[in-house]
Predict the 3D structure of the following.
Amino acid sequence: MQINVLYFASLRDSAKISSELVQTKAKTVDELFEFLNDKYSFEIDKDLLRVAVNEEYKSFNTPLTNNDIIVFIPPVAGG
Amino acid sequence: MFQIVEKNINNLSDLKLEILDNPTVGGIVYFQGVVRNHNEGKDVKSLEYEAYTPMANKTGQEIVNKAKEKFDIVDAYCIHRKGHLDINDTAVWVITTSHHRKEAYEASQYIIDTVKGEVPIWKKEHYVNEQAQWIACHRCGEHHDHKDHKHD
């Protein structure tokens, strides 16, 4: 399965890229996160992250579908 | 309407807002968020706003729509900057219009509070004497409904 992952803010600083196509056998968002966290050692605590699947907030146990766009969302700070 | 923009929004008159052109309106509340030169004891020299723009526009529009359902207002508008901002630059405008003022104030507060907690926008502060850092409201990460704390 192919997943499009976008990185913003502190996660982009850790990954040193703003997006990538990930080939994965991960079945859920959570499994994908663990795979990426092993790869990039994100500095932010997982408990502080939310996740967007195809531009909507979802839970970490959401199943992945081919070509999903996944963004792990660090605490937001608009305004 | 909700918009994320890169251009300078310091002067409201440059935005040519249709929301301001309605003869039935009796009250207009303007909230203007500007960049201040200090945060938590540090001297701030500038800011960087980053946005996941497609989702930020979508989430922001949902918040504006919700405000129009929830409060008896005529219309609501929010525009938020991304990119590099200097001290005193405007980061966000929230404009609410209504027949009477109370609902316009309440809707304005609802929109800015919810935008701060929900819209995927991040802020990096650049300091005079320290390394730049991403600002995180860590309590937001713990409590996604934001009911038990306020944002400045």
User: Anything to note?
Assistant: The mean pLDDT of chain A is 97. Helices of chain A lie at 9-15, 29-40. Chain A is about 25% helix and 30% strand.
